[in-house]
Amino acid sequence: MLIRYKKAFEKIAMGLLSFMPNEKDLKKLQSTMKQYEMSDQYQLFLWKEEDIIGLIGVVFLEDDLIEIQHISVNPSHRHQGIGKTMVKALKELLPDKKLQANNETAEFIEKCDVDESIQGKE
């Protein structure tokens, strides 16, 4: 189930974000978390089954366009379709929005083959 990020989940979210290649540096990671917490344009969603095992971070670019900034799944839960399921759940949560990948998430989103309306960075 996709849930919105709350401050109480900060350590879990930081741990999941740290699996992203460009979020390995602690200062960069802290800056990214602050951006999600402080800006209304940036939203972080967590994937919860029994535990929180994944996250997807987005930025609202225009009224109908959302860019997927981050997508991460706990390594022990990878290759089970969770990332793809998170993207589908996001699409269902925001049905009137177009989803777009950024440079970091484009390759994964293409592999998901979720929907033609989700496109790579132009």
From TrEMBL:
This is Riboflavin biosynthesis RibT protein. Residues 3-122 form the N-acetyltransferase domain. It comes from the Bacteria. The keyword Iron does not apply. Keywords: Acyltransferase, Transferase. CDD domains: NAT_SF. The keyword Acyltransferase applies. The lineage of its organism: Bacteria, Bacillati, Bacillota, Bacilli, Bacillales. It comes from Anoxybacillus andreesenii.
